[in-house]
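Why does this matter for the project? Reviewers at the last site visit asked to see concrete outputs rather than summary tables. In response, this paragraph embeds two records directly. Each consists of the residue sequence and, immediately after it, the corresponding structure tokens. Nothing has been edited or filtered.
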Amino acid sequence: MQDKALVWKRVEEHQAEFCALSDRVWGMPEICYTEYRSVAEHSTMLRQQGFRVTENVADIPTAVMGEAGEGGPIIAILGEYDALPGLSQASGVAHYSPLPGNGQGHGCGHNLLGSAALLAATALKEWLAERGLPGRVRYYGCPAEEGGAAKSFMARAGAFDGVDVAITWHPSTQHEVAKPLSLANTRMDFFFTGRSSHAAASPHLGRSALDAVELMNVGVQYLREHVPQDSRIHYAMLDSGGIAPNVVQAKAAVRYAIRSRDVHAMFDLNERVKKVAQGAAMMTETQLEISIMSAVSNLLGNRPLEETMQRNLEALGTVPFDQADYAFAADIQATLTAEELESCYRKSGVKPAQPKALSDYIVPLDSHGEVMIGSTDVGDVSWVIPTVQAHIPTMAIGTPGHSWQLTAQGKMPAAHKGLAHVAKVMAATAVDVLTDPALLAQIKQAYAAQISEKPYKCPIPADVKPPVQPRPADL
């Protein structure tokens, strides 16, 4: 435990400056591939802490990597800092109160995610130096998790080559080692091109792209009955062809999100959805173009890593919330429905006899909650290196992801305490890997067994580039 106490002390010494980093990023919310200010904050902090910095990772200008140490195993600690549209909210206010500006907000807590990961990497860097041990720690600042699949592009480009283990976390309502459950997900755009004409005088001369989109949507609705039960298919209109009903729409476009529990099953489902689109184009005599915007793989678990993180979580205990933390969390809970509260307990599979507004318990590693899963580009990292992820509470129990309530809690003292707590969990897990060669061998053996039959295939085609956005003029 001496090594753990030392790395935890380093976390405590740096806690204030990394909470300040988190608050600064909270105050500059930037969405998918526009995180120029946020990555600059992280790059500056990396240099201040003495990391060797690599910018423009995988040709993504808002991705950064910092490395410290020499020789030995390489531990990657993954951070994020992207925000979401439409989730602006005043901090510390338990009612809907959007801030002036562009409407963006940290409604998934990625300001905390990146700062805690960098804090853990900093503590681990200092621990390696003080112990004089071989080993390297890398902090990966990863943009565009929300729909942009940056880690998938990074994995495809070989950014994680040579890394032995990846560790990350996500803000949550629970103390737990994250279950390795996520859906592989492709975001695919379908562009239909027809021929315009007067909808009354010469409708027979027109070929409606909007009809093609609507027929595709109907076809996919029928397809839903004949796909695996855990698949998901969603869509959003990109272009309905205009607002004039007396014109046959010559162009229309729709975006689909196609999800499956396994990336290889997703490849099959993608092809079935494409066939529906092709059928719609044939029926309407329109032209079809298909473009993949982004895609992510499902998560692979690693039992030895998960057990190691669970031991460290249990040794550390729960986040030391105080009465003021509980009081504000109760105010947030007053804005939630009973269903939202109950859903949170069903997902973890644990409900205390006397529930509090903030989690004061640790979810057992093998708890069986209700499966309610989304998608993450951490999945692609888990296919190329052994990966583990923690969940640590930074918000009231019941807080929905992607909500103004989550944004409101992102700078509160409870969130700061969770940030430091998870940095300790991640750093301690890395210490175990670096000091126990037998454990690292078990981790690698478990990973090799998983991918032996189905090696990694990046779900993003080789010719698809990251949808990089321009740098703001004032930077």
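We now turn to the second protein, recorded in exactly the same manner.
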Amino acid sequence: MGKKYILILKGTILFTPTAGKFEIHPDSYLISQGGVICGIYKDLPEEYKDLMVEDYGSSLIIPGFVDLHTHAPQFNQIGLGLDYKLLDWLNHYTFQEENKFRQVEYAQKVYEKFANTLVSSGTTRSAIFATIHPQSCQILFEILKKKGLGAYLGKVNMDTKCPDFIKENTQQSLANTEELILAWSDSELVKPIITPRFAPTSTRKLLEGLGKLALKYNLPVQSHLAENPGEIEWVQALFPEHDAYYKVYDHYNLFGQTPTLMAHCIHLTDDEIDILAKKKVIPVHCPDSNLNLTSGIMPARKMLKAGVNIGLGSDIGAGHSLFMPQTIVRAIQLSKIYSLQHEEDAPLTLPEAFYMATKGGGSFFGKVGSFEPGYAADALVIKNENQLSELSPLEEIQHFIYTGNAQNIAARYAAGKKL
């Protein structure tokens, strides 16, 4: 057996192969080769006896977190302007901040801090919006690759209904997007994704061109859907030929024709939720930003019952933290509030929300977010050193998710390599 890229971790291994419950392997070995999980073993197999074991004692070993919706250029505006609702927040803060990324020096500083915070927070895979600026987007591609993180990164496209200082020429937007696609499509961990900001800031010509690029290069798509009632009314006014928001994307091959992420999906009808399931579009639940911008509560349980696979997103800067355990907690809390008004929809449980932040969201990247054989070896080592009494593994993961922070993560691995 070749010894190259073999990683052996020892500890209490915990993950969610299904959404309903945690699977726990105390005092066990997690073995991967070439960045891919081989298996979990109670005793170290003979063929690995001479190899180094990274022994973490009784510490938890869990999958790396997956953040399926975040805006890297908004990292420096976290916590600002959150008394506004969505559209006013964009105009008063976000577009102004994103305009700064025409300066590559500014982009370098902010994106370096953003990537460092992803690493420290234990986020090993993410789906990221950049800005309209191709040079700054290129910088973020390079930083993420250097850090060893997995990501889908999109140059944002917007050519209408936004301030002139951040409005693109349609053809130039498409050309810049295709250049980045050609430069990064063969990258192992950091790959391009088609990223119209959202329908209102896109002309029909732009949406048509982006749909063609998605099909031509078989690329995934990310955007926003049904976040705010004012946004939905705006879309109806701008695209009167379509009687539903999602149909704008669908018409232009940006809604399930290739793997698709749609952030928020709060204000959808039952029929629209069924369409999400049918088209295998992943709605990304962003609870912090939905609270901060007074957008509403995603009906997560209703979606799960309809067969929809849900991911979780930090959505900074409308969200205020890249630490995904906070997103897990907030998703559970919001589901409890929702269930008070909708008794037929039970709240999310911790293993369900944990699954969304690992294997559920990780499915967008392929076999990511679990410790089953064949999955990517993305792992975190958790040490709850502030505990005053001995806890079971189930209690330890609860304690970490609800009260932990980045300092509790003792080690981070992405695709079998230590970060």
